[in-house]
Amino acid sequence: MLNGAMVLMILAGIFGLPAAACSSACAGLGHSLGAQNDPNAAAGQAIMETLKWLAILASFGSIIVGALVKRVGKTVGGVASLLFCGMFAALLIQANLMAILPALMLLVAAIMIWVAPEEQFRNIVRVEAAR
To answer: Is the dihedral of CA 88, 11, 21, 49 positive or negative?
Structure first.
């Protein structure tokens, strides 16, 4: 179960990269399509920039934590997965629907990490003597 959660986290990070690219494009379009002439656009543009960096951080963070989930432990891995899920879910403010799949994958991975037995987090090698 833990190996499945690791794979889900890594795949969510990979599938989240197009969402991050879309988020970056939205932020760039705000600059080029007249956000500089609208006095009310500054706050909205700051939100777009923040969401762009959230998407990039969530993509790379879920790949890194997914690869190290056995090392960081049950609590840290589950909370990190849930945090990255929330970061991708925040992209829905931008109407970035590409973030739904990585958010759901990370939610499932967080549940799988918390449900996984504690023995899966230990690297135990049992060697029995031949008889």
So the answer is: positive
